[in-house]
User: Fold these one by one.
Assistant:
Number 1:
Amino acid sequence: MKVAIYSNNGESSLEVASSLKKGIDQSDKLSIDGLNPEIVISVGGDGTLLSAFHHYQDISDKIRMVGIHTGHLGFYTDWRDYEVKQLVDSLEHDNGQSVTYPLLDIKVNYSGSSPSDYGLALNESTIKQISGSMVADVYIKNQFFESFRGDGLCVSTPSGSTAYNKSVGGAIINPSLSAIQIAEISSINNRVFRTLGSPLIIAPDEWVKIAPKTTHKTILTCDQQDLSTRVVESVEYRISKRKLAFAQYRHTQFWQRVANSFINEVD
Ligand code: NAP
Ligand code: MN
């Protein structure tokens, strides 16, 4: 089985990556292949796993991810840095077991004849304006829904619901559901401006269109990156037909993972 190691540059991550590489080199069932891997192991934090996903985005339907965390407990990273041996052993006994997480399709339309941009997010996409308030019309399934005024909007996947979405008061969604959530980032609500004011979750056959009404530049993010800083005409979001697979060598129940990340004291 072909394995790629994607590490951040932290000292402890590089150490883990090097002992992992050693373990893989010593195994006759495993080999390192950074170009066409079947398994991608990220070594670092959730941010590292997001970078690894985007690095292998074009072949993301052919890979399964594994996350080793070298810092604090991560959400996508459930192997500890001292478990390299167990992980190599699990890789050697792999029988294709996996769990898949929904992804978010992003289509960015510009005015005139500029071609659209496309993005794929594992966590979320946000559309926001740094200075002044962002005014944007929100459509659900081509029906006008509301006119938003505030800092911005956060559109997240279920597995991204524990990230930015959580900070802005969104709900946590089990990734076994295909759904996307739209959460407001500091909306202005008074007698003049009115939005729903609560996060909303749409179904897989629905889509959302956000059309900024300002001539100011909006910032459009896709996970940890900027997708566009140009003047955007509209952004369309829907649940992708693609999903991201994680090799599931052991099972941690989703809500246990949530409790471990946010509530329980861990060593
Ligand atoms: P970062 O500033 O290190 O990320 C912020 C925190 O979010 C880190 O603790 C990160 O864990 C954690 N995180 C990432 N994905 C998560 C997930 N699905 N569930 C729970 N926690 C998660 O930047 P980054 O590492 O490049 O990550 C980018 C992400 O940061 C974005 O996708 C966005 O979700 C999040 N973010 C949050 C806010 C906010 O809450 N106000 C603002 C901007 C961005 P690690 O330390 O393990 O990386
Ligand atoms: Mn990070």
Number 2:
Amino acid sequence: MKATTERKRSTGRVFLPGSVVGILGGGQLGRMVILEGRKMGYRFVTLDPASDCPAGQVADRHIARGFDDPEGAEALAEAADVIAYEFENVSADVVKRLERKAALPQGSRLLEVTQHRLREKETLAAGGLPVTPFRAVRSPQEAERAAKELGLPCVMKTATGGYDGKGQRLIRSAEEAASIWTELSAGGRELILEAFVPFRKELSVVVARGIGGETAAFPVAENIHRDHILHMSIVPAPIDGEIARRAEKLARDVARHLGVVGLIAVEMFLLEDGRLLINELAPRPHNSGHYTYDACATSQFEQFLRAICGLPLGSPRLLTPAVMVNVLGQHLPGLLEKLPSLPPQVKVHLYGKREARHGRKMGHVTILADAAEALEIIQQIGLWER
Ligand code: AMP
């Protein structure tokens, strides 16, 4: 399947349309990268254990094997001209192995840093970048001491594997820090304790960085979470222009400090006094950047592909204000019922997942309107309910 040498599609680090892009991970992020990439003439092969996964459904070829299965990785490296990962919970060893066999512009180091909360915060802090105050906690005693130092309440998180609030707990007393340490560290998991940040808003910036080090930042989104899952992103974020410029600069600084090729999503807290603290990073397209699909000159998915394939970055310009709302399992029946009468500003994206479980991300809608109008529409179409 790989583009043949007679019709060479690659010159060094540039992969032209016609090249085969391998994607590690079969979720909705990969799906949207593929949908955008097909438009540009790329071909795709995906690797994910689930045979009917969102990205596999739209790829040219899907390899239904586990990420840790050497034969699966081998088949991906064989089939693809260039490989990208679309999620962090894949073992860095597999990515290191792939990197030796195939072009993998994001690199394994970015994955190693961003898949481990403690390493991520230590790396950012070492570069002088502002992060939520934190401590590594390796025993119940350390947890107790760190809770006293950071102040209460504070938040204990597993260093790896957590997402959408899984593997994290609010700590209200030093004693609780010790007991929750014992609970969360079961199975030898490493833990991090963070100060609880009384933020004014949660913001994020997705920034692209190309192979030559050039960067392009998408507009800042304000993110509203519900039950620890992203509920809604509002763009432009209702904040001062000066704060928006600082948030974008911070995201570019992170991309440069980590030597990103591809995308980095920087989630941050805006404090009452105007300071920005980085909460978390994602080295790939991000849920809070889904609005770019319909509202920007270039989507985050196309931009990701451009960066990975060594093409010039596209314009991240916002064409219209937008609000993105996630469609969870419980929202899907109501949305489908209202679909025939949706207002024209509503763009619907569904990910092809068969089972609409409560809390599962089934799709998203982007409302091409300012926040006030969008909020009315969201209520009308039942995306407000928990
Ligand atoms: P995370 O998985 O780290 O992105 O956390 C999920 C959500 O929990 C964040 O978007 C915040 O709403 C909240 N959260 C996480 N860490 C903190 C913190 N240190 N202080 C306050 N809220 C937090």
